Amino acid sequence: MLSPAQCRAARALIAWSKRDLSAASEIAKATIAGFEAGKLSPDEATLQPIKRALQDAGVLFIPENGGGAGVRLAKSTSASIDTDETRTVQYEEYLKNDAPPGAGG
């Protein structure tokens, strides 16, 4: 299920125009505009490509769970820091102890 408000909010999150969504989903811009304005009620076969295009762009749809349906951005994995500690790389120059005796650490 996709609501007009979710569609508008999803586009805003990823800074897409109706034209951008139309190109990505291959659904007419007029259909998207009518749906978002509440003037059209497209069938599920029309809404699925719209929702899929938004999901592919990084939008997560939050179902109605007592707090209302919504949208949010997916957590980006492209800028994450590699924390795999099973592979440790040590460089020889960092293995030498160049501190004076008794320096600790």
Automatic annotation (TrEMBL):
Organism the protein comes from: Rhizobium binae
Top-level taxonomic group: Bacteria
Protein name: Transcriptional regulator with XRE-family HTH domain
